[in-house]
Amino acid sequence: MPSIVKINALTVPAEQREALERRFASRAGAVESSDGFEWFELLRPVEGTDQYLVYTRWRSEEDFQAWMEGPMKAAHQGGGGEGGAAGAERPKPAASASTVWSFEVVQQAAPKKA
């Protein structure tokens, strides 16, 4: 069964780039221990676009969905109730738009060892 890749294309205004990168840096293992997780990369645009790419690879669609419904949802909701508590306001999102692309891995290669 092939791995699946999820790429989240985040549109990030120039003034929010540092905030986005800080937030990802502080996520400290948020996905790495999830069942079926295989790889993560945050890709910074170099030229011609304001979109960051968040690349994750998973053993299966089911593993990705389990992470989305569990740890990822909890992390993005911040754990408070509907009413929220004083001072519990979440920071403004760094991205102004987000699109998720899904792929199956059909071929892959690694460097040859000498």
Describe the structure.
This protein has 114 residues and is of the alpha+beta class. Helices cover 23% and strands 27% of the residues. It is built from two helices and four strands. The protein has helices at 17-25, 61-77, and strands at 4-11, 37-43, 51-58, 97-104. A four-stranded antiparallel beta sheet has the order 2-3-1-4. Strand 2 (37-43) and strand 3 form a beta hairpin. The protein starts with a strand and ends in a 10-residue tail after the last strand.
Largest sheet: 4 strands, antiparallel
How many β-strands, per DSSP? 4
Radius of gyration: 16 Å
Alpha-carbon distance between the termini?
A: 29 Å
The fraction of residues in strands falls at: 25-35%
Question: SS-based structural class?
Answer: alpha+beta
User: Uncertain runs with pLDDT below 50, 5 residues or more?
Assistant: 79-87
Task: Give a quick set of tags describing it.
2 helices; 23% helix; four-stranded antiparallel beta sheet; 114 residues; alpha+beta
Q: What's a concise summary of this model?
A:
With 114 residues, the protein is an alpha+beta fold. 23% of the residues lie in helices and 27% in strands. A four-stranded antiparallel sheet has the order 2-3-1-4.
